[in-house]
Write a structure and sequence with these properties.
The chain is an alpha+beta fold and 86 residues long. The protein has a domain at 24-81. The protein contains two helices and six strands, in the order αββββαββ. The strands form two sheets. Strands 4-1-5-6 form a four-stranded antiparallel beta sheet, with no helix packed on it. It has a two-stranded antiparallel ribbon with strand order 2-3.
Amino acid sequence: MAKAASAAKSDTDDKSTATMPDEAAPFMVVKGPRKGRWRAGRHFATEPVQLFLSDLGEDEITAISDDPELAVSFVNMRGALDDENT
């Protein structure tokens, strides 16, 4: 039943609450809604965008990761996702 409910979700409903990265997470992957979303001076749509954390300020990381319209995952050095919903 949970799989059927999750399969019925659209891309705009695919939101995740990511934890703040630790030092082992060099980049974040961000996916926005179908209509697109601007946050921290960047545009996010359904195509995943990889952002290196070293290129962002702490306020930009927080603005992006706290936005409920964006699905955010932090990727660590080994390529594994650091995300509460994975």
